Amino acid sequence: MTQSENPVAIVTGAARGFGRAVTAALLDRGWTVVGDARRAHELETTARELNSARLITRPGDVTDAAHRAALVAAACQAGPLRLLVNNASRLGPSPQPALADYPATELWGVYQTNLFAPLALIQAALPALAGNGGMIVNLTSDAAVEPYAGWGGYGSSKAALDQLSAILGAENPAVPVYAFDPGDMRTEMHQAAFPGEDISDRAEPETVVPALLRLLDTRPAAGRYRATDLAAVPS
Length: 235
Fold this sequence. Notes:
globular, Rossmann fold, 235 residues, 47% helix, alpha/beta
């Protein structure tokens, strides 16, 4: 198989946490991955550790239109774009403030990263995904459906992303759109949500990836899926 024949995925926030774990798993399956991250040095470290010629790194911020265009261009040049994983997310202030005290500028930043940027990237990638029988995965959270105190900014942005995903799925039946809830994981962002607390009981991101791979392999109807439910489905 030549590189041009490999299916191509875009994974945002690929330098660490769940994005890195997904990137590693896709590379192991023979995919070419275009991965981005805001912290260029972390992306360089990840690329060095994964050591794959099929990992194409593009440091930058998903809220930047030129960066999004560069991601899609790199993916389409590498081969058939068949997967977009909108994984990059922004928690907001840590500790998280109550909604009554939430600074408007901070809330705008959360929505820019968690809602507007994923939609803009989908809009840019959709023609290629539709032409190649592709799929879209938007990372969501249980904070989108549960009223956790202190999670108003992040949770409401993910709730909006859930609805955005559902409508996109209804409007584009040829390209399944999945809102994927990985559950609590031992990541830097989750630690920031609980400053000073021990989160060692949370799942490592690598242990959640098989649930996402099951979603990609089975290609069910568009919708919202929890990792715990997918893990319970017999092979």
